[in-house]
Amino acid sequence: MSAFTHQQIKVEDETRIADAFCAEHGTQPHGLIPDAQFDAIYDHLVAVLKKFATFSEGGGNGDFCSSRYVDQVPWIRVVAEDHVDPSISVKAGLEAVRSSPIPFAVAFDYYPDLILVLPPDRVFSTYDERVLQSA
């Protein structure tokens, strides 16, 4: 796996990290971005996730699941099924944020655990770093 910096966090740290990221990268009040920009990063993320596992939008039976019908911010939450190795989410997330022309971050929800992937090559998670590099 390619290099990344990791910081172990608590779940409750996500709001602070997300708010700061959206404030920095949002182009409209409250960290929002134009709908067309959000759709572009969402579609890009989905295309990358599908290289690694199945994806379902809005619910269903995918390894990863998300919905585009949330706040139009550069922070996208993806629910990962328990059988998806956390290192796969890190690989997919890093590829997606590195290859996007528009800065965005992805949060992988492994309730009760969490992985946040932010450019450039930053990963915050409730997991120990060794778990994220296992695959």
Number of strands: 7
* Strand percent estimate: 15-25%
Q: What is the string of helix and strand elements? A: EHHEEEHEEEH
Overall radius of gyration: 14 Å
Task: Count structural domains.
Answer: 1
**Count of helical stretches:** 4
Average pLDDT, all residues? 93
Helix content: 25-40%
> Stretches where pLDDT falls below 50 for ≥5 residues?
none
Structural class: alpha/beta
Q: Please outline the major beta sheet.
A: 7 strands, mixed
Main β-sheet, spatial strand arrangement: 1-7-6-5-4-3-2
Straight-line N-to-C gap: 8 Å
| Outline | globular
Description:
It is built from four helices and seven strands. The relative contact order is 0.22. The chain has 135 residues and is of the alpha/beta class. Helices cover 36% and strands 24% of the residues. It has one domain (5-119). A hairpin with a 3-residue loop joins strand 6 (113-118) and strand 7 (122-125). Helix 2 packs across helix 3. A seven-stranded mixed beta sheet has the order 1-7-6-5-4-3-2.
Question: Summary?
Answer:
With 135 residues, the chain is an alpha/beta fold.
